[in-house]
From TrEMBL:
InterPro entries: DIOX_N, IPNS-like_FE2OG_OXY, IPNS-like_sf, Oxoglu/Fe-dep_dioxygenase_dom. GO terms for molecular function: dioxygenase activity; metal ion binding; oxidoreductase activity, acting on paired donors, with incorporation or reduction of molecular oxygen. The keyword DNA repair does not apply. This is Fe2OG dioxygenase domain-containing protein. PANTHER family: 2OG-FE(II) OXYGENASE FAMILY, PUTATIVE (AFU_ORTHOLOGUE AFUA_2G00750)-RELATED, OXIDOREDUCTASE, 2OG-FE II OXYGENASE FAMILY PROTEIN. The lineage of its organism: Eukaryota, Viridiplantae, Streptophyta, Embryophyta, Tracheophyta. Keywords: Iron, Metal-binding, Oxidoreductase. Residues 197-294 form the Fe2OG dioxygenase domain. Belongs to the iron/ascorbate-dependent oxidoreductase family.
Length: 352
């Protein structure tokens, strides 16, 4: 292995099989009925089949892809090009916008997932600039801190491309939230209140070619922490999703002009799914998650409408900002305990 730091090496059971598992991919859902300029506002009967499809995809997979989503392709492509230019700069240039203990936005190349180092570098941007978050994870500390974007000098267009892209992602996120609400039998705007002062962000992921793709991962297995992730990937491929039915890792093949949607919340009715990214020895890869998060003061708890005697709440209420602050803190260093995850807020099985 020679030049590869042992911090990157996965335990045997987590190493990727590089042979592709041939399997039905995650569901592909066509949103054209929402976006066709020829149609008037879609009425309930027109979108009913779409809602059923979304409900099924969430229930069976927790992941799905959308096409004809209304986001102009050039928004994504332009951001990808700008991201590649940024990551091609020298380490020294990139570290000028490096993240630190005070401001976790910007460039970072030593993230660990489950205590193993990821074979990647990232650039994080918040959408509401500045974003307010709790200064510490201590429950009684009410102090807030501002996270502020750090823009590199080069490429100069990175900022504008991120901002354009963020606008499109917000539009798509609200559409998806409405569809998801409807698929849960709730009014379309039911979830919007949670996202009034949302604290969403965009991450640019770059996975450089890796000399030991059978031993390391671009990002180790994890569940996303926000409410909803909208992920764009380039045409290299590497995303794998753990299939619920048998625990097999399934590749999400890159699909032209599609976004991958990962639904994270809803009292386990729709369970967030584990996923990871594998790397390869030849090609660098870019992926761009947009993570839709509520405001820091939001108390996240199972919706009353989704709980009853038969389906009691499976999570304790928790403060979103404190959860986020704790997670950010533990992402910084290799810790002896596992990084905080949503399931740490799960009530014990006897309530579940
Ligand atoms: O690169 C990918 O396809 C997945 C990235 C991811 O899961 C993440 O950044 O949370
Ligand atoms: Fe993820």
């Amino acid at each position: 292995m020679g030049e590869v730091d042992a911090a990157f090496i996965q335990a045997t059971e987590h190493r990727p099989k590089l042979a592709i598992v041939e399997a039905d991919g995650i569901p592909l859902i066509d949103l054209s009925v929402l976006n066709s300029p020829d149609l008037p506002e879609p009425d309930a009967a027109t979108i009913r089949p779409l809602i059923a499809e979304i409900g099924e995809a969430c229930e069976n997979w927790g992941f799905f892809q959308v096409i004809n989503h209304g986001v102009p392709l050039e928004r994504q492509k332009n951001l990808e090009v700008a991201a590649r230019k940024f990551f091609a700069l020298s380490k020294q240039e990139k570290k000028k916008v490096g993240r630190d203990e005070v401001n976790p936005l910007g460039y970072y190349d030593t993230e660990h997932t489950k205590n193993v180092r990821d074979w990647k570098e990232v650039f994080d941007v918040t959408i509401q600039n500045p974003t307010l978050v709790p200064a510490s994870h201590e429950p009684n500390d009410k102090e807030l801190r501002e996270y502020i974007n750090q823009w590199p000098e080069n490429p100069p267009e990175l900022r504008e491309e991120c901002e354009h892209y963020a606008k499109e992602m917000q539009k798509l996120a609200y559409k998806l939230l409405e569809l998801i609400s409807l698929s849960l039998g709730l009014p379309a705007n039911h979830l919007n209140g949670f996202f009034k002062d949302h604290t969403s962000f965009i991450r640019l992921n770059h996975y450089p070619p890796c000399p030991v793709p059978h031993l390391a991962l671009g990002v180790g297995r994890h569940k996303d922490g926000g409410a909803l992730t909208i992920l764009a990937q380039d045409d290299v491929g590497g995303l794998e999703v753990k299939r619920k039915t048998d625990g097999e890792w399934i590749q999400v093949k890159p699909t032209h002009d599609a976004y991958i949607i990962n639904v994270v919340w809803s009292n386990d009715r729709y369970e967030s799914v584990e996923h990871r990214a594998i790397v390869n020895s030849e090609k660098g890869r870019i992926s761009i998650p947009f993570v839709f998060n509520p405001a820091h003061y939001t108390i996240v708890e199972p919706l009353e409408e989704l709980t009853d005697d038969q389906n009691p709440a499976k999570y304790k209420p928790y403060n979103w900002g404190k959860f986020f602050a704790t997670r950010k803190r533990s992402n910084f260093q290799k810790l002896d305990v596992e990084n905080i995850q949503i399931y740490h807020f799960r009530l014990s099985e006897k309530f579940g």
